[in-house]
């Protein structure tokens, strides 16, 4: 029995000395000291030992267990220390290195301009409405008084999916869809992405954003349109802003006008921003054409309305004094971080 215990102890100590991982030491503990371990098997064989020798053999088993447990604890302590030292080497902090900053994202200048614009019109009782970017020719052109072969179609040089479906060239189709429901009165703006086959340059892009507005009710006049756009200009560009209406032509409005505002850079005196004129063009507008009302099922003898269209990028460029539209789309952090 003594020789067997000595053999178990010797083998266990050799394995412990060779162990290079905590898992190996745990395996040794289980194989020697566990419920089914070698020392446990020795104790189970005590029934075969003479009664007078059992205390001696029991003491020998306990001594062997103590030696093995001590060796295991010692080796575990050494391994833990070694692991900790290696971890410290890998995770050492060099206090001379510059700190790492966590950058926070923020709204794009286009989004800032859109939210400012929506805030102005929501404050005047308008509803924000969205519609599909892939639109029927019927809504994008025909119901806006632009029939087949109309010159206005050539001006927009549209992206067609097929002869009946088109990437919308304006957000006016949303207005036609809302008028078609016949729910009066209407006070809405329709922001969204539009598409035209334009060459990319400092002021043009084949994909940009518009915000179109529409009011339809009884007794709406051009004076209401003028007052609305004056209020918008003052809130969006500044309280001293003035507006100027210039006669123009749009197929879906009659009469029609383009709207200029006093240059917010020079106050109307003339500068590089306004090319010396003191005025900057910002949008087109007019009274909704009676034929458009009729096509949407609205009686032009009872109802009238006005509409306007704002290029979101245009007012963003003007408001933030950006001289190249392409900067809005290039995702250059040096540019975007200024907003």
UniProtKB/TrEMBL annotation:
Cofactor binding notes: Binds 2 magnesium ions per tetramer.
Name of the featured protein: Phenylalanine--tRNA ligase alpha subunit
EC identifiers of the protein: 6.1.1.20
Gene behind the chain: pheS
Residues of the Aminoacyl-transfer RNA synthetases class-II family profile domain: 117-330
Biological processes per GO annotation: phenylalanyl-tRNA aminoacylation
Signal sequence residues: none
Cofactor dependence: Mg(2+)
NCBIfam families attached to this UniProt entry: pheS
InterPro entries, per database record: aa-tRNA-synth_II, aa-tRNA-synth_II/BPL/LPL, Phe-tRNA-synth_IIc_asu, Phe-tRNA_ligase_II_N, Phe_tRNA_ligase_alpha1_bac, Phenylalanyl-tRNA_Synthase, tRNA-bd_arm
Record-linked HAMAP family: Phe_tRNA_synth_alpha1
Binding residue positions for Mg(2+): 254
A matching Pfam family: Phe_tRNA-synt_N
Keywords assigned by UniProt, alphabetized: Aminoacyl-tRNA synthetase, ATP-binding, Cytoplasm, Ligase, Magnesium, Metal-binding, Nucleotide-binding, Protein biosynthesis
Originating species: Anaerostipes hadrus
Subcellular location: Cytoplasm
Subunit field text: Tetramer of two alpha and two beta subunits.
Swiss-Prot/TrEMBL catalytic activity: tRNA(Phe) + L-phenylalanine + ATP = L-phenylalanyl-tRNA(Phe) + AMP + diphosphate + H(+)
Broadest EC class assigned to this enzyme: ligase
GO molecular function: ATP binding; catalytic activity, acting on a protein; magnesium ion binding; phenylalanine-tRNA ligase activity; transferase activity; tRNA binding
GO cellular component, one term: cytoplasm
Family classification: Belongs to the class-II aminoacyl-tRNA synthetase family. Phe-tRNA synthetase alpha subunit type 1 subfamily.
